[in-house]
Every structure is written in structure tokens, then in C-alpha cells.
Amino acid sequence: MRIVIAGAGIGGLTTALSLHAAGFTEVTVHERADALRPLGVGLNLLPHAVRELTELGLGDRIAGLGVAPGTLAYYNRHGQPIWSEPRGLEAGYKWPQLSVHRGRLQMELLAAVRERLGDVVHTGHRLLTVQPPQAAFATADGDVTVAADLVIGADGIGSALRAQWYPGEGAPIWNGLTLWRGTARAPGFLDGRTMIMAGDAVQKFVAYPIGDGEINFIAERRAPGFAGEGADWNRAVDPVPVIELFKNWRFPWLDVPGLLAAAGEILEYPMVDRDPVGRWTHGPATLLGDAAHPMYPNGSNGASQAILDARTLAFHLAGKPLGEALAAYENDRRPATTALVLSNRRQGPEQVMVLAHERAPDGFAHIHDVLTPDELTEIATGYKKAAGFHPDALNNRPSLSAR
Ligand SMILES: Cc1cc2nc3c(=O)[nH]c(=O)nc-3n(C[C@H](O)[C@H](O)[C@H](O)COP(=O)(O)OP(=O)(O)OC[C@H]3O[C@@H](n4cnc5c(N)ncnc54)[C@H](O)[C@@H]3O)c2cc1C
């Protein structure tokens, strides 16, 4: 079966590796960019995604790329602790969580694709349309068509394949929050393996180490500006106004304005997603990753869900006729990711910060004066169940390896 993947992001490359592992030999990846460069800043691979990469034989390679956080801790905007919980192995998963640089992860996946599948990634190919059994791409030398028995649209939040099927969808939907992302060479904080989130629904700061002495951060503020159209992952902006917004956020355990000032560059991005769609598959073509279910990054699930999609799709394709396999893939993945998109809109586990701020905007003596231990636990475990990454569920689920 000739399988054409549009997009060489985390989703597209993992799909190529998963299909190869499942026995498919005619797989090509077509990427819009003229060259793949290690773009982006940090992201988190949750244990369910690390399991899939490990079962693809990449465990050691990706472990070497980043840091395995042992704790996730929430604070208010005054730096007072609200809630903390173990992550990864410390939380009872058989696989760690990994905080990595997106670009380094993408380059490692690309290297693995080249080693295992050969020269199958074609850059400078922008998907235009899919008319089975062909996909059309724009290249520097003009438009080309590629024969395909199956086309997988892994072409991100601005997916051309999705736009072909949902022409009225328009720009991604912006929720009014602006994100400023970056990395800085800075001293470690707390125990050196903690991911922190501080703030509330109006203004927030997230930081975690990603290895090589680098701290990744995401500063966030409800502010007018975008309308979603400018959802460009690489838009660098003047850091001064961002530092000014956080100038009072000097905690005993982290100097937020100092970290922002130490960043090489600050990238601005609107917090956007799209409404879930009722169908990913049309004939022998389907969507995967952000093309299928773009979601807010709170919850750290974008890359992890793309990896799960990839492995699930390959698993079904290996064992069923094409139509049945695509239906089984969509059946497994669409309801689960729809629930996540919607849950992320309700702030997911970060609800503890929102409630703490609503009830005590000027801070508190002890968090239990503001939120009961039961409320805290319920919010944290509820999201894990919805996201399908409760330790028991993940540890006991059969493998998605097709052979
Ligand atoms: C440049 C960039 C930087 C990012 N930085 C971060 C980050 O720092 N932190 C974070 O949490 N998330 C980041 N993301 C998003 C994150 O990678 C995704 O949410 C997640 O990994 C799911 O991956 P995906 O493969 O579905 O989508 P993406 O990672 O968006 O990959 C989609 C790929 O498809 C390509 N493409 C787009 N349109 C076409 C087309 N018409 N034809 C062919 N190819 C096409 C894109 O160039 C890209 O390589 C970034 C995405 C990009 C593209």
C-alpha cells in the first residue's frame, strides 16, 4: 500500500516510524518547509507518549534529549504553593514524562526515519489537495501529483487537508490569551526536576528544565491583540513589555523577570484551537495530530496525542482492511481527543490556580484555608482520567505494537 503523509512534524514523522514498524514499506513524507530545522521551544512528552516511542525502539534516544520531571507544582501569582503532584515514574507510571526541546525531538525522529525508511522525507512539498488516488503538492518546480492508496494529513493546525473538507472553518479560534514562549540558560530552581505553573486565569507563568542547562518558559496574559490568524509558531517579539508584565513575580525560589530577561528570544503565539469536527476520514484519507484535533497547550498534550494517533493508526492498518482500519482509528482516537480539546478549554488541571485566585486574590496563609484537600485531589485526578493517562490505565493497556 502506497501511504503518503503530509507534514513532517512530530505527528507525521512518528506515523512514518509506526507504519514502518508495522510492516509497511511504501511510505513517504511530504513537508511544506524547504528544510527541516530544529524549531520551537520546549514541550512535554507524557508517559503515554514515551511508552509509544519506547516501543518504537527510541526510548534511550529520546531520554537523552531532555529532563524527566518528577514533580508538577502549582503556585499562585505571589509564589505561594497550591498543589503539587508526582509525575512520570514517581507517579507510578512504567514510563517517564520527558521535557524536551521540540526541535531536538523532531530532528531525532527525522534521523530515525532516515535510518529506518531511507530517503523518504521530501521537503519543499506543500499539500494542495487530495483527490484519491492522488495527492497534489506545490513545489519550487511547479505542482506535482503523487499516487497514494492512503493519504494522512499530519499538516498541523493550518492543515490543507482539513480545509479541503471543512472549507468554511476559517482561522483557528482565539481565547483572548497571548503566550510568550522561550528558553533561557539559567540556574536550576527547586530540585532541578520540577515543572512549575504560577498564576491564575489572567496571567500565568510556566517553567521547566529541558536539559543542557536550559529552562523552558511560557508566560501568558489575557490581552487584546490577535484574532487567531497570526498563529505563527516562530514570531519573535520585543521582550521588554513581557518582562514589565511580570516585574513583580520575584519568588524566593524563582526570579521570573530575571528568567525572561535571560532568554535568547521570546516567541509570541495566540492561545488558539479549533472546534472538534465530526469526521476525520473521507475515503482513503484521514487527519492526524494537530490537523485532526488542535488543542490548547495547557495539559501538555499536543505532541503526546499526535504520537498516540500515529501508533493507533498503524496498529489498525496492520490488522484490518483499509476502510475498517480507518474507522477503527477514528473510533479510538476522535472521541478521546475531542474530550481533551474541550477539557483544555475548561483549564484542565490548572483549575486549582483559577479557584485559588478567585477565593484569595491577595494570597493565603495556607492553601487548605482556600481549597479543601478533596477539591484539590478531585481536580487533579479528573483530568488524568479524561486524558487517558491515569497510571493504571496506561500501565495495563495492551501494546499498540502491531508485530
Ligand atoms: C515550527 C513549529 C514550532 C512549534 N513549537 C512548539 C513549541 O515550542 N511547544 C509546543 O508545545 N508546541 C509547538 N508546536 C506544536 C507542536 O509541535 C504540535 O502541537 C504537536 O507536536 C503535534 O504535532 P503535529 O505533527 O500534528 O503538528 P506540527 O508540529 O504543527 O507539524 C505539522 C507539520 O506539517 C507541515 N505542514 C503544514 N502545512 C503543510 C502542507 N500544506 N503540506 C505539507 N506540510 C505541511 C508543517 O511545516 C509542520 O512541519 C510547534 C509547531 C511548529 C510547526
Structure description:
The strands form 5 sheets. An 8-stranded mixed β-sheet has the order 5-4-13-14-15-12-19-16. 33% of the residues lie in helices and 26% in strands. The radius of gyration is 21 Å and the shape is globular. By secondary structure, the protein is an alpha/beta fold. The protein has a domain of 99 residues: D-Amino Acid Oxidase, Chain A, domain 2 (2-Layer Sandwich), CATH 3.30.9. Strand 17 and strand 18 form a beta hairpin. The two termini are 18 Å apart. It binds flavin-adenine dinucleotide (FAD). The site of flavin-adenine dinucleotide has 32 residues, from helix 1, strand 8 and helix 8.
List keywords for this structure.
about 400 residues; alpha/beta; D-Amino Acid Oxidase, Chain A, domain 2; eight-stranded mixed beta sheet; five-stranded parallel beta sheet; 12 helices; 20 strands; binds flavin-adenine dinucleotide
